[in-house]
Write a structure and sequence with these properties.
Two copies of one chain form a homodimer.
Chain A lengths: L6 H18 L10 E3 L6 E3 L7 E9 L11 H17 L4 E11 L5 H17 L3 E9 L4 E9 L22 E5 L4 H9 L9 H12 L5 H10 L3 E4 L4 H12 L2 E5 L7 H7 L3 H7 L6 E5 L1 H13 L5 E8 L8 E4 L5 E2 L13
Parallel strand pairs in A: 4-5, 9-12
Antiparallel strand pairs in A: 1-2, 3-6, 4-6, 7-10, 7-11, 8-10, 9-11, 12-13
Amino acid sequence: MSHPASVADLGEFGLIRRLAGAVAVRTAPALAPGLKLGIGDDAAVWAPTPGAWSVITTDALVEDVHFRLGTTDWYDLGWKSLAVNLSDAAAMGAQPRYAVVSVGLAGDLPLEAVDAFYRGMADLAARHDTLLVGGDTVRAPCLAITVTVVGETRPAAPGEAPPLLRRAAGRPGDAVAVTGDLGASAGGLRLLEGARPPGGTAADHAALVAAHRRPSPRVAAAGVLLDAGVRCGMDLSDGLLSDAERLGEASAVGVVLEAARLPLAPALVATYGDAALALALAGGEDYELLCAGPADVLARARAALAARGGPPLTVVGRLVPLEPDAPRVRVVDAAGAPLVVEGGWSHFGGAE
Amino acid sequence: MSHPASVADLGEFGLIRRLAGAVAVRTAPALAPGLKLGIGDDAAVWAPTPGAWSVITTDALVEDVHFRLGTTDWYDLGWKSLAVNLSDAAAMGAQPRYAVVSVGLAGDLPLEAVDAFYRGMADLAARHDTLLVGGDTVRAPCLAITVTVVGETRPAAPGEAPPLLRRAAGRPGDAVAVTGDLGASAGGLRLLEGARPPGGTAADHAALVAAHRRPSPRVAAAGVLLDAGVRCGMDLSDGLLSDAERLGEASAVGVVLEAARLPLAPALVATYGDAALALALAGGEDYELLCAGPADVLARARAALAARGGPPLTVVGRLVPLEPDAPRVRVVDAAGAPLVVEGGWSHFGGAE
């Protein structure tokens, strides 16, 4: 054929060659001193940094479960598929290094769609010094994308283990903080699903939609937190309430969140008013960092982030001893009285 | 609920806890001196072996494209999903170490099915000193499984790079060899799809079906090949003809295969007679190793495999200078005359 238009026209090996070429453009050797073999053999190969530990994380996005083609374009879909995984690496305090992607798609998909998808991935990868080193592209009756990211910790100091951000490292008395602001992605999704915005300007709405479509994983900020001495952290993917529950469970503590302290995205407040709080608590897909530590450590981290042009770090609550029969996570108002808010979402619709 | 029966009853986090528990049973510390964090945080963490390089590979299996639930059970599906990835790691000469799995499945899937799937993965993982360290389980309208395996090479000798099996390391004059025998998996698939076997006993048919359902990745054999000095190799997943094309392309050589030398699976010959050859050449999913090297190196490798109870290594052809206008891969009969055989399969149905 002279002019392939769809995935089927090109064939699997043709597609791999095309993508390897597209990705290679962005594979500057300076980015990857350790890469020994990229796309084209049975596996990619690299030399780990001496003294560093490796991390691995994987996440899948499925059409009509995690995204809709009516509300995203292919470039953004590629971006986001990688972003959620970079965010998980950052959530350990690790620098993501290498990514592989497996895509199941229909044979009649136009090649422009596939190209845009990989361009979105490659652009985000380049921003975070991460390389796409392989993958698998298969025909499938439903569109499903799985990305796996391998990263590495900072090298260990002599006689020590490399530093990590752990969910289990929280202690009663720790302050709880989040980077950036919350709820914009959930507000953007609501707009994309056709909800009529109760308020806000077109610029507000565009900001919310952008937050939903192109999240910025907090890779650099996670490193700053570690350097400041923070050791407890995770990323916010399922919503603050749901993720605080995970952190509290791993650390065997309770979590008290003060609603008045939550850094609500300004565009979210402008658009949704009083409903902004629930979106910030339960909306999900913020891809900010949730962390805990002594108040002075968090203050140092906040200053260090500010000095480097990083996101704000806002204390939103504290870890407390777990009391019998008390809920793991409590949301209180400015006077300390309990608020009741709907929980995070369940992937299977079951009880969480 | 008192007695969860389906994925939806349990919820995502319940499912993760259940699987983490099931996998932990098989996570003996002796298997994983380097593992620092398994399932339960944002990513798994391990300490790489000093001097070794890391490899990563990913492969997806999609229902009704790569498998049918009518012809496999869940245990075998778990086994095979991991096997195809361990085979890719072995194809580099690497020891697989860690695996993550992403599964998209229906919410009403019985938990017994999920349990059997992970049991199949875990049993195969344990055989090859590989650990399941994480994953993602999502609701999806079609059943899709993506496994990513990270492994490591042998540590490098001082001043040298670690040894690898490369597709690109073949040279004209090299002999070409395969481990084990060929075609059994393709023969088994034909039986599973309801084809009436022209011959063979029930035991023959069972052997073919078993080869299709539970392939044995050649992890240990790959190490023996490397130690014997073999440096060119890959695994056979798409069929000998198709994979020889890839190896020849990467090494910029032609490949001559001698049909009479192919190690046809005995049960395949018993069942399919004269049709066995085409299945061995083009059938795919053998998960044997295809390698190339000087004849004396391959002879040493064969003896070393035999001494360790490994699979046979059979010379099936040779690499030749690529001639203009000649096909990359030629199959010849015992007299050296060309044979014409149908090619491997295309994932998208396009021209390969």
